[in-house]
Amino acid sequence: MTIRYTCVKCESVLKIRDEKAGTKAKCPKCRNEFIVPAPADEDSGIEIDDAPGEATPASSMDDDLVDMPIDLTPEVDLHAHDDNFDPMDVLSGSTAGVTPTASSAGKSAAEPVKKPSVAELMREFEATKKKDAPKAADLTAAKPSAHATAGSAADMLSRVYEQKREKAGQPKQKEVDPEIELRNQFLKKAGAALAGAAVVIYAFFAYLNREIYTGPPLASVSGTVSSSNGPLVGVRIQFLPALTSLDGSPIAAPAGAGASGITDAQGKYFMSYDATNAGAPVGDHEVKLIDATGLPMPPLSGEFARFTVQEGSNTFDIKID
Fold first, then answer.
1. How far apart are CA 262 and CA 231, in angstroms?
2. What's 311's domain CATH number?
3. 167 lies in some domain
4. Average pLDDT in the 56-80 region?
């Protein structure tokens, strides 16, 4: 009777004689040590053939499910080799490194080689699929993680690229020495303080040096000088304090000097008391005219020969016949 044992490490199917039950053996392919089970033990990796010539009948369903045969590992006499033999020679079918003994040769010649049935091949095929299923599941579960990792890396590279491009587009700022920066801030503050102090000092001296008017009260006087030919240009008008009234009696003359003005292109004039004060003293004034060449013009008569300046705004239009 032959014991069919499946290696738990490399899943090779080994055919071992029942005389080796309970002894230690090594898998010729992966060198995994194991104890040959007894024929009576129930193990998923053990298949026992009662008779070498008997084979399990194959159904038509099994024939339809199998698409190709699975090569089985040839029977190997584990005691016929030492520890240095190459198991690949056995698996490949080479007999160069294998020296069978007389007893093993006789037994192998006496026992016919049993071909696996379709049911056995199907069971081995299903067992292989079940063992490979966890590996495929792990691979499927790892794929989303790999995609997620690739996406995260791409996002990170994109952000780094955007940051570098923004930095490259920004103008480079020069590094400033802290001492120089402190000095510049001090100069700015000191400059503002000095400018304010200069304005205050200027206003103070302007107030001290201002001209204080001490003359008679002044009033605004303006008007025109014209003739029958039109406005007179460049004529100087002089207001002189009147010393007598209209009836010839003496009167108190206005304090200070008189005022003067020059007509413009339209014949208009504005009286000024001096270079800094506009207007004419309040009171009676005699009017005299001087032409553009500096020569006195004929004296005025009637209402144009004498004006009385009053407080406020005064307008006197002079007409020459």
1. 12
2. 2.60.40.10
3. no
4. 46
- C-alpha–C-alpha distance, residues 182 and 188, integer Å: 10
Q: Assess whether 7 and 117 both reside in one domain.
A: yes
State the pairing for strand pair 259-262/218-227. unpaired
Q: Are 8 and 116 found together in one domain?
A: yes
Domain end residue (candidates: 99, 130, 161) = 130
Dihedrals phi, psi of 92, to nearest 5 degrees: -80, -5
Look at residue 142 and tell me if it is in a domain: no
Residues in the chain, how many? 321
Each residue's pLDDT tens digit, 249-299 = 676 655 567 899 999 999 999 999 888 889 998 888 889 999 989 899 988
* 147 confidence band (pLDDT: 50, 70, 90): low
Q: pLDDT, tens digit, for every residue of 64-74? A: 434 444 444 45
DSSP lists the bridge partners of residue 26 as 33
Any domain includes 101? yes
**How many domains does the chain contain in total?**
2
| Domain final residue pick, 98, 130, 162 | 130
Of the listed ranges 96-105, 141-150, 241-250, the one predicted with least confidence: 96-105
CA distance 195 to 257: 43
- What is d(CA 297, CA 319) in angstroms, rounded to the nearest whole number? 13
